[in-house]
Amino acid sequence: MPRPILEIDHLTHAFFNGTGIHDICARIFPGEFILVAGPNGSGKTTLIKHLNALVRPTSGEIRLHGRSVTKDLIVTRKTIGMVFQDADTQIVADTVEDEVAFGLENLNTPRARILEKVDQTLAYMNLIHLKDRNPSTLSGGEKRRLAIAGILVMDPEIIVLDEPFANLDYPASRDLVEIICRLNREGQTIIMATHEVEEVITYASRMLIMDGQGRLVKDGPPRELLGNLEYFGIREPCFSRMGYSAPPWQT
Ligand SMILES: Nc1ncnc2c1ncn2[C@@H]1O[C@H](COP(=O)(O)OP(=O)(O)OP(=O)(O)O)[C@@H](O)[C@H]1O
After folding, report:
1. How far is the CA of 43 from the centre of ligand 1 (A)?
2. CATH superfamily, region 6-250
3. Residue of 77, 119, 129, 213 with fewest CB within 10 Å of its CB?
4. How far is the CA of 47 from the centre of ligand 1 (A)?
5. 49 CA: nearest ligand 1 atom
């Protein structure tokens, strides 16, 4: 049995108004593709913020390789790369190339190495043709891929994505699913929070379902949870409603 990368241990974050997340326990292993699902307000974003120690728990803790994520913020944030829903808030540079180079420059990486890694990452994310463009001129799908590129170039052990399909049309979502699945097949550990699971449920290895009170109510393989998702306030994928266990083109 491999050792978990992350251990979420009785994590509670109580907001002043009584909402938040309550007593969450889960372990995440190398190479997993975890879906964190649940209706609006179930605490997905709050949980994700704790993974990167962006907020402090009321009680409990998250351990990364056995050490609290709050212990060494530099190590935590280098190991766990976060891609938030609003890609615009993550953009800092005037060109796509500089945007992806930004994190490496801050680590004083040699220039030649930066250029090489940035090119590799842009090619991987299908953005190389946009290298000289101003990020503000990109489409929503391109911006989302750029935000992932900026994280990927730093070689994080875990990539965390918050609602990556929000505001994307079908082709942009499919492109993103392909990239995320390819990353996961190559060994990248992925944690994705979403309330729309249709796009990715058959590719995820495990699903954590949160309820409207911020509690973790299910932790299991997606195939075992299909058919019961509506009960948890999650839209049942179309193929599942039609009685299939996976989209017909995948079986
Ligand atoms: N800073 C805050 N102060 C007070 N309450 C908060 C704060 N942040 C989140 N909450 C509350 O905590 C609960 C969980 O919110 P959170 O954003 O984590 O849910 P979510 O599952 O990510 O929702 P969505 O799918 O809408 O993004 C909600 O009831 C929300 O109103």
Report:
1. 6
2. P-loop containing nucleotide triphosphate hydrolases (3.40.50.300)
3. 129
4. 10
5. 18
